[in-house]
Amino acid sequence: MVDVCLVLENTYPQVTGGVSRWVHDLTTGLPELSFAVAHLHEDGGESAPARYAPPANVAPIVRVGLDPERLGAPPRLLLSCPKRASTTPFRPALRAPSGRPPARLGTAHSCSPSTDSPGSRRALASRAA
Predict the structure, then answer these.
(1) Is residue 87 domain-shared with residue 129, that is, in the same domain?
(2) Residue from 47, 48, 44, 34 nearest 6 by CA
């Protein structure tokens, strides 16, 4: 069991700077905590070489492939709300045990009252790489 799970999209450890640098500083700066990293990437894409060597307190990184064709949201719907394009597939995973989104995640749910779309289910059912 790990203390902290980080869900990252196309960043650490393959990309330098920005979020990747912050993640590396966080994990190396808190050696008393253990970390898991779920690296979200587009299916079929080759993995870039690692730019950071994860420290010992980071469990082996799990690569999760997301197939954009399986997301199922019509382009016009995504264009009508840019936040939806990035949050819709993960809304069910962000739900609190009560079934309501935690207050701090309110912006992820601001585009639509629906948090259980067919696109969400398909994205979450995509295979791990």
Answers:
(1) yes
(2) 34
Beta bridge partners of residue 36, listed in sequence order: 5
| Cβ neighbours, 10 Å, residue 87 | 20
Query: Do 74 and 51 share a structural domain?
Result: no
Query: Which residues have CB under 8 Å from 109's CB, separation 6+?
Result: 87, 91, 94, 101, 115
Same domain, 118 and 76: yes
Alpha carbon dihedral 82, 102, 6, 14, in 10-degree steps, equals 10
Helix (H/G/I), strand (E/B), else coil: 28? helix
pLDDT digit string (tens) for 54-113?
Answer: 999 999 998 887 766 655 554 444 445 555 555 555 555 444 455 554 444 433 333 333
Phi-psi region of 18 (alpha: psi -120 to 50; beta: other; left: phi over 0): left
Regarding pTM above 0.90, the answer is no
Q: What is the pLDDT of residue 24?
A: 96
- Separation of alpha carbons 117 and 66, rounded Å: 16
